[in-house]
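To: structure subgroup
Subject: Chain for Friday's discussion

All,

I'm putting the inputs and outputs inline so they're searchable in the archive.
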Amino acid sequence: MRKVLYVVASLWAMISLQSCFTGVESTKAITQKDVERAYANDYDNSGQSIEIAIDTFPNWKMGKRFFVTDNNIKYIFSPSQQFSIDTLNLQNKIIAYDGYTKSLSIDGRQVVNLYFKDGELMLQYNTNRTMDDLAGTNANRFEVPFLVDLDEVEQLRKLLTGMSLYIKTPIWYDADGNMVSGRKYVNISITDVLPGDKVFPFLVQFNDNGRTAYVFMSYRDNYLHRSFDDLFSTSDLRERYPTISDENWQRIINGQVASYMTKEECRLSIGAPNNLERVPTYNGIREYWYYTNGTYLIFDEEGLLTSFRR
């Protein structure tokens, strides 16, 4: 009986050892943050920082102009005998700052009420904040919803217009705000800076070999990564990758992938994956890249793309 038990135990041990090397076990899924951390030293950091003067409240001067990005701004203004909220249309208009008053809130605080003028119309915005609350720093400043500071737009226009840069994003827009197919890492010339939308305050106009296009930009980085450094580079990224063939570089410019491209080439073309999985095989590690839009890439043990879906 002991002999039988010994044989069974031995067979179980052998099976357990073999199962460790079947080549079908996978590691824990790796997130996009893990991927970005792994490639931290390989990202393009050749952008040029820009600086503009931020005019924070309560330093606004009378008559300071703001561009209205969305007509939903009408719901933040107090009702008035001068207009009906239902018919008020302010989108794409320019309104001017016209001072402030203080009033006592229901909880006993001295809160600030801001005033803006649209022609003869007086618009009142009750901030429900004290003066101390509103006097923030540049990094954490008070902003009125749906307004773009035109002084900041003008500063960026003077700073950026005429600059020759390399664009890092293929997310371009036309003059009507419709997304169009763009290219990455190509030389462009900035021709203007305009007011943006309720998320990104600036719309940068540029020329790409006679084609006019636009990108939305924020001054400071936000969770959608649209600061100047995220969008543009002062140097040609192509020079950093001399081993990439001209054929594959054209694919990268147009956001395309093809069989036998390397992981580095694929990352440059369509970005780092949202999740990554590494699967051990007898010949090494097979890697699977997954994107939230349904795209996936499969790399063989040599790190070359063997299968994909776009």
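Points worth raising on Friday:
Helices lie at 2-19, 32-38, 131-134, 150-160, 228-231, 246-253, 263-270.
The first helix runs from residue 2 to 19.

D.
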